[in-house]
Target: Homoserine dehydrogenase
Amino acid sequence: MAEPLRIGIAGLGTVGASVVRMLGQKGTELTRQCGREIVPVAVCARDRNRDRGIDLGNAHWFDDPVELARSPGIDVFVELMGGEGDPALSSVRAALESGRHVVTANKALLSRHGVELAAIAEKKGVLLNYEAAVAGGIPVIKTLREALVGNTVSRVFGIMNGTANYILTRMEAEGLSFEECLKEAQRLGYAEADPTFDIEGHDTAHKLSILTSLAFGCRISADDIYMEGISNITQADIRAAAELGYRIKLLGVAQKTESGIEQRVHPTMVPTSSVIAQVHGVTNAVAIETDMLGELLLSGPGAGGNATASAVIGDIADIAKSRPGFQHGPVFGRPAKELQPYRRARMRAHAGGYFIRFTVHDRIGVFAAIAKRMADNDISLESIVQHGEATDDAQKTVILVTHETTEAAVHKAVEGVTRDGHLTSRPQVIRIERAA
Amino acid sequence: MAEPLRIGIAGLGTVGASVVRMLGQKGTELTRQCGREIVPVAVCARDRNRDRGIDLGNAHWFDDPVELARSPGIDVFVELMGGEGDPALSSVRAALESGRHVVTANKALLSRHGVELAAIAEKKGVLLNYEAAVAGGIPVIKTLREALVGNTVSRVFGIMNGTANYILTRMEAEGLSFEECLKEAQRLGYAEADPTFDIEGHDTAHKLSILTSLAFGCRISADDIYMEGISNITQADIRAAAELGYRIKLLGVAQKTESGIEQRVHPTMVPTSSVIAQVHGVTNAVAIETDMLGELLLSGPGAGGNATASAVIGDIADIAKSRPGFQHGPVFGRPAKELQPYRRARMRAHAGGYFIRFTVHDRIGVFAAIAKRMADNDISLESIVQHGEATDDAQKTVILVTHETTEAAVHKAVEGVTRDGHLTSRPQVIRIERAA
Model:
């Protein structure tokens, strides 16, 4: 049997502790599957004295992750500290420069510095594995990077934030407001005290930027993502969606178009009959659309210590199964130096269906005015719902679902309706996404 | 750049032709992703003169696949002939014995001879890749074999036959009979002239037997699969399922139980709200339940030339990315010689919920007699539906959904009801499966 694979783990939070526990509990089976032992020989975390409920055995303790990363005593550096800057960045860089393989769950780091780090890994002939960085335990990186080689991807989209999906699921199931569901999510530990990162789409954007690079062979560009959160989704939207055969999800979508690549994160209407519409609660799902395969969908737990540790262990095992001298595929599917510059499609050129909800004064001529604004902008309508029951005596709700049109046309039409002076409150516009 | 990877393809049917076409069209991109060229240098098929609409370039033609498999001019033997016996068996064996890597889409071959072939591959230090053998383009082999290393799997289940799923989907959507939908499927080329293999569960069983070995580390045992097809599913079942919140799918299920491993293929009720219930038409889906990850679901095209070719190309690319002297993980997750003997759980011990549909004489006391038979066998009922509208003047339908009970108890109870003489036709029993 080959020499044991010696790993050094930096970061012993929920995921780090799960990884150590899993290596202990599943040691025999992992050795059988990998043909060698995987041994955590060194660890590093902020507080040496904290009780994490794990057995660190004889693992050497480092106070400085960079020192651990450079240590000649390890073969693989496992970065589970998080954060786009130091010490994650400097330690991953140090590990790669020193010829150590790296496994990381750090989406922020990769979305910012992924291409630079990939170039170092490829120059040094070591692996940089990051399955846990996107959609937790779902093997979407492996699928895009290995299984779909040779497929030309046209679109990747998914539910990549469990907090946002949990809130939307409860809003729909229980008729509660966004604020009530957010509080529930915070109480249950699904949402942070400051939930901005999750509910405004930043977390999804980080993950999406990594998938975009893998899918389209371009450099990562997390700053070029159109982003809209779910905090202004109301019960009126959810009920109207249901009535029209849709469900609202916070999707990240990356799509090739004639003018470039669209990367967008926003609340989205998906058909209730689609598979992705059945992805409830904290579950994540990613769909990949290609020329050869059609649509592939992966769904499962997108977060949590054990699910994330499962992906980290898978990444470590891939390294354990390989042998010195071997070379695996490039970090982002194509060699880092051959990744294309990111060409951003203009959001105004986005083509798709739209859901538009107007709350209007209940008076004659309003409906005709709205219809005219749509027609003037070449927007053809798939359905129109005017609620018989007025929301109060003086106002009514008008809901439109458009056929494929453009973002620019919808903006112009909605601005026109707003200027006409018939609205009693801000109009709601939600994009519709095709989904199988 | 490394030397080109030379492949020999045996079998130029739909999948083989798609592989050749894809290698031609995606050559540049594949070279970039794999770091070397993939060149089909030799082919073999039954009829040399048939026009397959593909450019075979300078590929050397072999009449004998075994000769191709042994040829020193190839690095990888791609077996796309199908069939569990020769020439597939002898040629794959010859390729492995000669130290060539093998890629195959042949589920029948693997379900019968997989462990023997894996042992040869492992002894010779070559790869035997077979992603396309199960669920076409869905990367379920890669997921079980690589991504979920270290997870303890408790259950694998899925929709693995597109023909059967297409028929069930149309029966539900259009209210047509099994026979009508089968004819439609045949007309559209989704079903063979002799559809037995697909609709009676044999095809699903082959695929399931491979997943079982990967999931549970046991030897493949395709003969130990309980099998029931979909030909006796009627509109009455489908309507009753819908009414009770279920949908009927032909599932393959492998599950660890106290008494051994259950492998079963049968029509199954899954909750309408589950993700797998939304898998329609020829689409396949596989769910994997583990201790660390929870439930992971993969869905996508399970058949078709391009989707299957996508998986074959992925397998070839994995070989292309590796280098001589490297070693990858074992063929079925664990080394072939360490795979455990298959221990079959008794089907009578199967525990789960059941849907039971009785058609009974419309007379006093029938319902009480049925209820007594259930109670006598300790079967507790979740719901009872007795249709007001008699199916004709003299008979009625009684539908029961049980809480968890055993196969043995259900059989005994149903036999009791049958003996009581109240039934006007054969009772229908359909197992219910939990699904997220």
Summary: DSSP finds 14 helices and 17 strands in chain B. The radius of gyration of chain B is 24 Å. The mean pLDDT of chain B is 93. Chain B has three domains: 5-137+305-338, 141-301, 348-432.
